[in-house]
């Protein structure tokens, strides 16, 4: 884990691209900055560093992204392709223009950065698993540093509804996370997944400070090397807390989201 790669030094934040074979989970509410942080990591993962750990990025998007393919390509379940090749982004998902803004901040050529990001839109949880199965074929022929899934749990929540399908949902989610870990170990890449939050649906919620908890329960917790919790601060500031890590103590870091991506707070 390095602490100087996302914001300007000395930002106290973890860069997954410098810690291979780790699975890092970032949980947070809507509009707290999970996708924006993922965009910044798409760029910083490509910056040369002392350990020569830089490489390409795979981005599996479960948000409202609409790929522009021919009818023939649509029958291929939208395979992973370069981020600057025929994508029209929608709200709160992968945005090539955001990557370009962040690339300028780090004095990188936007087209080159986008060319090194392989992105695909998943439409169902089964499709999400199918896209992950395509990843080893990509990584076998090139150097990759980071695999991002934004969000890991969203489609599982849609496909498996209610307590009656909870067990099956957890089994499928466990398989997905297990496959992620295999990719990390096989290709020595860092895994960065975002996770949604849910309100505690019982009476005990009134007795706790924060009644919200991450989706996925113990499945996500046990599959993650490091767990982070992101929440809103003042104005554009966000606060990230290390919930669990084998290397770092429980602590918090404050950063800001602006046109440059994720940076240190102004005050």
From TrEMBL:
Query: In the UniProt record, does the keyword ATP-binding occur?
Result: yes
Q: Which GO terms describe its biological process?
A: DNA recombinase assembly; DNA strand invasion; mitotic recombination
Q: Which Gene3D superfamilies match?
A: P-loop containing nucleotide triphosphate hydrolases
Is Nucleotide-binding included in the keywords of this UniProt record?
A: yes
Name the keywords, alphabetized.
Answer: ATP-binding, DNA-binding, Nucleotide-binding
Task: List each copy of the RecA family profile domain by range.
Answer: 26-197, 204-267
UniProt GO MF annotations: ATP binding; ATP-dependent DNA damage sensor activity; DNA strand exchange activity; double-stranded DNA binding; single-stranded DNA binding
InterPro entries annotated for this entry? AAA+_ATPase, P-loop_NTPase, Rad51_C, RecA_ATP-bd, RecA_monomer-monomer_interface
Family the UniProt entry places it in = Belongs to the RecA family.
Protein name, entry field? DNA repair and recombination protein RadB
